[in-house]
Design brief:
It is a single chain. By secondary structure, the protein is mostly helical. It has one domain. It is built from twelve helices and two strands. Strands 1-2 form a two-stranded antiparallel ribbon. The protein is elongated and about 80 Å long. The model has no long low-confidence stretch (mean pLDDT 81).
Length: 270
């Protein structure tokens, strides 16, 4: 596809540039993954916070469902108003995946036809010309696991795919572990997507170039750390806001008392 060529050329350039320093095809892909995730961090930040707010709002959602249980139209309006007020985007968890899809397809093309997209003057281009494949932990990153002939040789590929599934499941659990089963259809849909996507990525990893699977795994690990940091900072801010609200309520219910010495002087004058 011609529309993917600019992405593939950009990824080929970045990949070759990183390879000049690492001289490792696998580590170059991993570092490239980190660079891409840093670039899309603002989007990931919004997605993580939106998902977390959705989980935190489950009690409010249940209240609205009870209030408008006989009128779905009013329920939908109330839910939309609440989402807007709390800054929740029900489709926020899918948006980063959609944004990254052109990158996946472009990286797929680079790994399949590296000499077409990697600069001819780079060290990576010369290494690929000399060798038909560059291995990473005994894995050929240019071919999918399904093309490996011997089952014993497939072991590292299968371990890599297993790690992709496990890290994706853990990443999803980071956000949803605080909330149990929800009656909200949208929340249920998000939870279902969160359970299906790791299995889906594990399934397609069997037929994709192994370098792309390394990209998936590195991205999952990076986002696990990213989400842990975001959740920790947001929880800290929430605790501060709660303490501030409690302090404001205390000052309103218990006004500042007068100085006892002044009260004694008033009594003496009387």
């Amino acid at each position: 596809m011609a529309i993917l060529e600019p992405f593939a050329l950009a990824i080929g350039f970045l990949l070759s540039y990183v390879y000049d320093f690492t001289l490792s095809y696998g580590f170059a892909i991993a570092i490239l993954t980190v660079i891409i995730n840093v670039i899309i961090f603002p989007l990931t930040l919004r997605q993580t916070r939106s998902t977390k707010r959705m989980q935190d709002a489950q009690s409010d959602i249940k209240k609205l469902q009870k209030q408008h249980k006989d009128n779905k139209e009013d329920l939908n309006k109330a839910m939309a108003a609440m989402y807007k007020e709390k800054g929740i985007n029900p489709l926020g968890c899918i948006l980063p995946l959609i944004i990254q899809m052109p990158i996946w397809f472009a990286l797929f093309r680079v790994l399949r036809e590296p000499l077409e997209f990697i600069p001819a003057s780079s060290i990576l281009f010369k290494d690929l010309e000399v060798s038909t494949s560059l291995t990473f932990f005994n894995m050929d990153l240019q071919i999918p696991p399904s093309e490996v002939a011997e089952w014993i040789d497939r072991v590292p590929y299968l371990i890599l795919i297993l790690f992709v599934i496990l890290t994706a499941l853990f990443q999803q659990q980071q956000i949803t572990k605080k909330s149990g089963k929800s009656d909200n259809p949208q929340a249920q849909q998000m939870q279902m997507v969160g359970k299906v996507m790791p299995i889906f990525f594990g399934f397609i990893s069997w037929t994709l170039p192994t370098g792309l699977v390394v990209y998936f795994l590195t991205g999952n690990i990076f986002r696990i750390g990213q989400q842990a940091l975001i959740v920790k900072l947001d929880d800290r801010e929430e605790v501060k806001d709660e303490k501030k609200e409690e302090k404001d309520e205390d000052t309103q219910t218990n006004p500042i008392q007068e100085n006892p010495r002044k009260n004694r002087k008033k009594r003496r004058r009387k």
